[in-house]
Amino acid sequence: MTDNGKQDVTLETAKNADKLKPDYQVEEKKKHYEKYAKGMTPTHNLWLQMGKAFLTGGSICLLGQGILNFCTGVVNMDKETAAGWCSFSLILLSVVLTGFNLYPRIVKWGGAGALVPITGFANSVAAPAIEFKKEGWVFGVGCKIFTIAGPVILYGIVTSWALGLVCWGIRMIEMYL
Question: What are 127-163's pLDDT values in tens digits?
């Protein structure tokens, strides 16, 4: 009977060991993953990133101001026409740089500084169009061109319409008072 009792205890200990083993492995895998994730997560220097964004955005704005000054001073355009040509030039430059895969490098280095000006918006429209050109003009370019910029355009139009409606309502109230 002691032999059977020892065998029963050994058998039960083995079953309990199998139940404990997966928990130990799960904990070990969690620790390993946390160590892996910590090693793979990039660390960023906030002040350096802000400085790069400032330089990038500032350079784009400086270029725009240079175009504006050239148009008003050298070409003798009025301010409104010069502003249109400045916007056009910056958008064209952004799309060309996106087409040659240079603007994503500028964005990677300059961060939000390259995404905030009008050039970033032009890049967000051009990049999906270039990427999906291989799918054809209608289903590729036509459908994908506004995947990133579409919500910005949509909410901009809806917001301006709503504010226009509010201003119109206020004027109508003022007119009848």
Answer: 777 766 667 666 666 666 667 667 777 777 888 999 9
CA atoms within 13 A on the CB side of 13: 6
- Look at residue 1 in the predicted model and tell me its pLDDT: 45
By percentage, how much of the chain surpasses pLDDT 90? 36
What is the number of other CB atoms lying within 10 angstroms of the CB of residue 86? Answer: 22
Q: Is the separation of the CB atoms in 148 and 127 below 8 Å?
A: yes
Task: Spell 109-131 as b/e; 16+ CB within 10 A means b.
Answer: ebbebbbbbbbbbbbbbbbbbbe
Tokens 């009008």 label which residue? 118
List the domain boundaries for the chain: 47-145, 149-177
Residue 117's region, left for phi above 0, alpha for psi from -120 to 50, else beta, is beta
What spatial distance separates the first Cα and last Cα of the chain, rounded to whole Å? 105
Mapped onto helix, strand or coil, the DSSP state of residue 148 is coil
Q: What is the pLDDT of residue 145?
A: 66
Name the pLDDT band for 82 (thresholds 50, 70, 90): very high
Largest CA distance in the chain: 111
